[in-house]
From TrEMBL:
Name of one Pfam family that matches: Acyl_transf_3
Domain (Acyltransferase) ranges: 7-326
Biological process annotations from GO: polysaccharide biosynthetic process
Protein name according to UniProt: Peptidoglycan/LPS O-acetylase OafA/YrhL, contains acyltransferase and SGNH-hydrolase domains
TM regions (residue ranges): 7-26, 46-67, 88-106, 126-144, 156-175, 187-206, 218-237, 243-264, 284-304, 310-331
Length: 369
């Protein structure tokens, strides 16, 4: 399956939103003034919802034609594990080293992390050691469920996905799931609905029905979300909390954005700049590392006594922070994540290598025995 550059562009945009959102906290902590508006903190979290929608789309895209084939299911599961854990463990151990030396620098306001649960991305009442890895806990749960769905016929996937979403809706309407333990809360969390919506959108994208969507309608979807949907939803308070209203609102908006953009790309009506594709490719490394990079820049800023209430000084601080995060992401992807992916892919090829078919002479000898 060829890569959809629009999905990488979405990762680029979403990543930029997350980074800028976290920069607001660093600006308050390390700088002598604040330029970034406080509202950015509210928008920061929305981009994680976008990642969940895109993740559901990609899971359908990479699993097509592989259902009910045990070896393909195993390869799919291996690819998901190999994609998430090795790069994550690199930054887990870097963060662990900092935590052991200066524990107050790591998640000091969110309770002490459970190290083994953090290492394996197991749900816990506190945030993981790598704070942003809370979203990876959800990702791994989504991957586990989706892998189990591949045991069924692929044509049943829309109905099974709808049933999964229906179960979560019923549970959240009947109970206050936020009071449940970390494992049950993960299983019943509404975030899964966004993953389901992304998956259903992908099924629509790959169906003949998608051709009935005119280019004009696809452009309308693309423009509706940033110009009308997000401003109206924000003003109405639809994006607050983590409940059903939030996930349906954001799932719908980001779903429209995703299907509109991917349809336009398929029809050669939309192209993505190469730099956005590159940042999208490196988004996982940047996501895992950006808090560390921001923290280093902030502490250096204070160490060299550069913090001041001046406008120019604050602009310089923000530009340096953002540039450092993005540059490290691109470099870290090339030097760390990409080699790890290549090594994992090569190992997977060896593990799932087809056994050569026995030749006729060997078969005759075997029957003779």
């Amino acid at each position: 399956m060829s890569k959809l550059n629009t999905l990488q562009a979405f990762r680029c945009i979403g990543l930029t939103g997350v980074v800028i959102g976290h920069m607001t906290f660093a600006e308050e902590k390390y700088s002598g003034a604040t330029l970034l508006p406080a509202e950015i903190k509210d928008f920061n979290q929305l981009f994680i919802d976008w990642f969940f929608v895109v993740s559901g789309f990609i899971m359908v895209m990479v699993s097509r034609g592989r259902f009910q084939v045990p070896k393909e299911i195993a390869k799919f599961a291996y690819a998901r594990v190999a994609r998430i854990y090795p790069p994550y463990w690199v930054y887990f151990f870097i963060t662990l080293a900092v935590f052991l030396i200066m524990p107050q620098w790591i998640n000091s306001a969110h309770g002490e992390p459970n190290l083994w649960k953090s290492f394996f991305l197991v749900p816990d009442k506190n945030l993981p050691l790598v704070m942003v890895a809370w979203s990876l806990v959800f990702e791994m749960w989504f991957y586990l469920v989706f892998t189990s769905l591949m045991l069924f016929r692929e044509r049943y996937l829309p109905w099974i996905l709808a049933s999964w979403a229906g179960l979560i809706i019923c549970a959240n309407l009947a109970f206050d799931t936020s009071s449940f333990g970390p494992v049950l809360r993960l299983i019943l969390h509404p975030y899964a609905i966004e993953f389901v919506m992304g998956s259903l959108i992908a099924l629509f994208y790959f169906s003949p029905l998608s051709e009935r969507v005119s280019t004009r309608v696809a452009i309308g979807m693309l423009l509706f979300v940033p110009l009308i949907g997000v401003p109206v939803g924000y003003n109405l308070g639809l994006f607050r909390g983590e409940g059903l209203v939030r996930v349906f609102s954001l799932g719908t908006l980001f779903g429209l954005l995703t299907i509109g953009a991917t349809l336009l790309e398929r029809r050669d009506k939309l192209s993505v700049p190469n730099f956005m594709v590159a940042i999208g490719d490196s988004s996982y490394t940047t996501y895992l590392s950006h808090l560390l990079v921001i923290g280093v820049i902030g502490k250096l800023w204070v160490l060299f006594e550069l913090a001041s209430p001046s406008l120019i000084g604050n602009i310089a601080f923000l530009v340096i922070m953002f540039s450092a995060v993005m540059i490290y992401g691109l470099v870290g992807f090339r030097l760390i994540e990409e080699p790890l992916m290549n090594a994992a892919n090569n190992l997977g090829k060896k593990i799932f290598k087809k056994k050569p078919a026995p030749n006729s002479a060997a078969l005759a000898a075997r029957h003779a025995e």
